[in-house]
Amino acid sequence: MSILKEFKAFAMRGNVVDMAVGIIIGGAFGKIVSSLVNDVIMPPLGLLIGGVNFTDLKITLKQAATAADGSVIPAVSLQIGSFIQTLVDFTIIAFAIFLMIKGMNALNRKTKQEPAPPAPPQPTNEEKLLAEIRDLLKDNAKR
């Protein structure tokens, strides 16, 4: 079998197509969450903290400088604000995935039917004979 035919067989399997759809939807969902955090959640939060724009929040380790030859040496800083926004993004996405999996598990539990209880075992020939004898003894005792 040629490599092209093997690849086509691989790519057309259901799991691969489902995975591709999931990755595309996940990427789009990530962009939506990033926009939600950057454009909706962080501005009011920054305003409450005192007008801080989280993207500008950073810790400067070394200030920018000018070298002897006139070139600029950029500042070295820790971008704390971007990190906080990324943490909020991650938390929202992780919570959304948790809720989705929880819902899928609930649906799976509902679709799985409880197995029917096993039928009681049939009495053996000896048990049937003993039951007949018991019934005859009851009938004789009533007479």
What would you note in describing this structure?
By secondary structure, the chain is mainly α. The model has no long low-confidence stretch (mean pLDDT 84). The termini are far apart. α2 crosses α3 (80-111). The chain is built from four helices and four strands, in the order ααββββαα. It has helices at residues 3-11, 14-49, 80-111, 125-142, and strands at 59-62, 65-66, 72-73, 76-78. It has a two-stranded antiparallel ribbon. The protein has a two-stranded antiparallel ribbon with strand order 2-3. The chain has one domain (3-114): Large-conductance mechanosensitive channel, MscL, domain 1 (Non-ribosomal Peptide Synthetase Peptidyl Carrier Protein, Chain A), CATH 1.10.1200.
Which series of helices and strands comes N to C?
HHEEEEHH
CATH topology name: Non-ribosomal Peptide Synthetase Peptidyl Carrier Protein, Chain A
Give the N-terminus to C-terminus distance in angstroms: 88 Å
What gyration radius follows from the Cα positions, in whole Å?
35 Å
- Total domain count: 1
Task: Note the topology.
Elements: H1 3-11, H2 14-49, E1 59-62, E2 65-66, E3 72-73, E4 76-78, H3 80-111, H4 125-142
Helix pairs in contact: 2-3
What labels describe this entry?
143 residues; mainly alpha; Non-ribosomal Peptide Synthetase Peptidyl Carrier Protein, Chain A; two-stranded antiparallel ribbon; two-stranded antiparallel sheet; 4 helices; 66% helix; 8% strand
